[in-house]
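User: structure tokens for this one?
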Amino acid sequence: MSNKSVGMFLGLFFAALLAGCVKDVQVKKPAAPINKVALVSLSVSNWGGTVTGTSGSEAKAAALISSTLGSLLEETESKLSGILRVTKVSGFVKNPEYRNLASKSKHDVLVPKASGTPLAIFANDNEELIAAKVSPEVAKKLCTSLNVDAVIVVYSEWAETMGRFVPTRRALAKNVVSVWDRNGDLVFFKRVDEQGEGVLGGPYGPIVVNEGTIKQWAGAYNSGFGQIVQEMKTTLKP
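Assistant:
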């Protein structure tokens, strides 16, 4: 099987797996107004190494992705602050109550750091991870510990996409966002897939992945998350 065929197969496989794990989600109406929130987890996956491209190795690709995560965290909290009161993660990331609630499971994802400390992950398995899921009990404890009305979990899968009519490849960010209230109920859930603006390659050969092009994935993430926040505004804002 050619590299092109393998890449296309992996892309379809991961898309199907992600879609299968986030469908049929039951969302409840908030029992009380959501005014104050905290972003408790943000993770990015380079599944199948599809973002590796010309960087040469998955380790180099991981370093490039990691270089964007600090600004992504800031942008994510900034967008949320535009519609809700946000307790910044930098104020609680080292809090023992927050860290003790983190999952002990290992996940092949990258997470940003706040005040030099990585954000926690609360998923117990891969299915929970890609569905941005947290257990009701953990959600309740997080809300109580952080004194917020709800907590937010973000999972973003970074891959590539090829044009249907013009065979050029671009960055693709698949964002999954969930919001959990003080009762441990899922009160908001949304997935948005967004592609980058620049062309990273043609139908053959590796995509271009370097310090400049990695911003295409960051831009796709920010665009997709912005769309999610706009829907969140109509659903959660009192």
